[in-house]
Specification:
Order of helices and strands: HHHHH
Distance between the termini: 49 Å
Number of helices: 5
Helix content: over 70%
Structural class: mainly alpha
Radius of gyration: 23 Å
Strand content: under 5%
Length: 165
């Protein structure tokens, strides 16, 4: 602790201000990482919800009419713009830092959660099939990897865009 009697008030104030600034800086340094991981979880939740709705619609209505591969292609034309818009909304809505480190944490968190859900679903629904060699399942893995990178790409769009969502 600083002794106010031996030093002038301004020196004590300066030292306390510096200590408080260092503590706030340490808290901020850990908080942005938590915020980025939380944003990745929120992005995953939005993607999983949208994919669940589209997956049911594809299975019930599109598969019987167009066949599995064409139905997956139709689903992709919907889910990719949806995921792009969702990444922008999450980054802006959570006021996430636009630095690449935050975007990487968000992307990795999203990818790990998507792959975990994907493996769990593949193991439960397709126990007899190999999910990696199955054509549309392999495509699903590639799409999830692509969608996970959207926060990295969308941060540039957010920086250059002056419009609000």
């Amino acid at each position: 602790m600083v002794d106010c009697r031996s030093k002038g008030y301004s020196e004590v104030y300066q030292k306390l201000s510096n200590e408080m600034a260092m503590q706030a800086n340490r808290a901020w340094n850990s908080d942005w990482k938590v915020a980025a991981a939380t944003a990745g979880f929120v992005f995953f939740a939005i993607l999983a919800s949208g994919a669940a709705v589209l997956g049911v619609a594809r299975t019930v209505w599109l598969d019987p009419i167009f066949g599995r591969d064409a139905a997956v292609a139709i689903e992709l034309t919907i889910i990719l713009p949806f995921a792009w818009y969702a990444s922008i909304v999450v980054v802006k809505g959570m006021q996430l830092s636009l630095e690449w480190q935050a975007a990487v944490i968000m992307a990795v968190t999203t990818f790990l959660l998507l792959m975990g859900a994907y493996v769990a679903l593949a193991a439960a629904a397709f126990a007899e099939a190999d999910p990696v060699t199955n054509g549309s399942l392999g495509l699903g893995i590639a799409v999830q990897a692509l969608v996970s990178v959207f926060p990295l790409a969308s941060r540039r769009v957010i920086r250059t865009s002056s419009t609000t969502l």
